[in-house]
Amino acid sequence: MLQLSKALINRPILSLRTGSEIGTTTNLIINPNNLKIEGFYCQDKFDKKSSKVLLYQDIRDLLPQGFVVNDHEALTDTKELVRLEDIIKLKFSLIGKPVITVSKDKVGKVNDFATEIETMYIQKIYASQALLKNLSSGSLSIDRSQITEITNTRIIINDLIQPASARVPATA
Questions:
Q1: Which one of 2, 14, 72, 76 is at 20 to 30 Å from 53 when CA atoms are compared?
Q2: 126 in the Ramachandran plot: left (φ > 0), alpha (ψ -120 to 50) or beta?
Q3: Using CA atoms, how far apart are residues 132 and 42, in angstroms rounded to an integer?
Q4: CB under 8 Å to 106, separation ≥6 — which residues?
Q5: Are 119 and 97 in contact (CB under 8 A)?
């Protein structure tokens, strides 16, 4: 099942052991190498001083009420996550990144994305186009298979297929 990014942020984190809320997700940790959500920054309900992370593998279930974990131990200090240290330092975010084609045509900026909940891989990104283009065609849905490169400053996708009316006829 796909979920939009806005549905993953500001969600309660619920403990199976106590049956109560133990925190709230505040932001995503995205691995730009494979477009996978590795975890969530979260606000611990009991320790508001330090930054905590909820790793995706510690989530037992996703309910309409929030993310379900075993207990409070699922929330980890960022300093303890050695494997994710480089990804955390990147502070990578998809929202607002410019999207361009391989042939350098500007497509727009990422305004949302959809994630497959079972695997936490981002499957689609949604790019809003410039105001003039947006009046006629709306936003674009880009599948992860169309992405050729992701940098810290932009996302490069395969060239878009032009509508038949926009194509220039070949001359003999």
A1: 2
A2: beta
A3: 38
A4: 98, 99, 100, 130
A5: no
pLDDT tens digits for 16-58?
Answer: 998 899 999 999 999 999 999 999 999 998 887 777 999 999 9
Pairing of strands 98-101, 155-157: parallel
**Side chain identity at 115, as an amino acid letter?**
T
* 91/129 Cα distance (integer angstroms): 25
pTM: 0.82
Tell me what the pLDDT averaged over the chain comes to.
Answer: 87
Question: How large is the average pLDDT for residues 95-111?
Answer: 92
Element (H, E) at 16: none
Please state, in angstroms and rounded to a whole number, the distance separating the CA atoms of residues 71 and 80. Answer: 18
CA-to-CA distance for 95 and 125, rounded, in angstroms? 9
- Is the pLDDT assigned to residue 94 strictly greater than 50? yes
3-state secondary structure 132-165: HHHHHHCCEEEEHHHEEEECCCCEEECCCCCCHH
**Amino acid letter for position 102:** V
pLDDT category of residue 139 using cuts at 50, 70 and 90 = confident
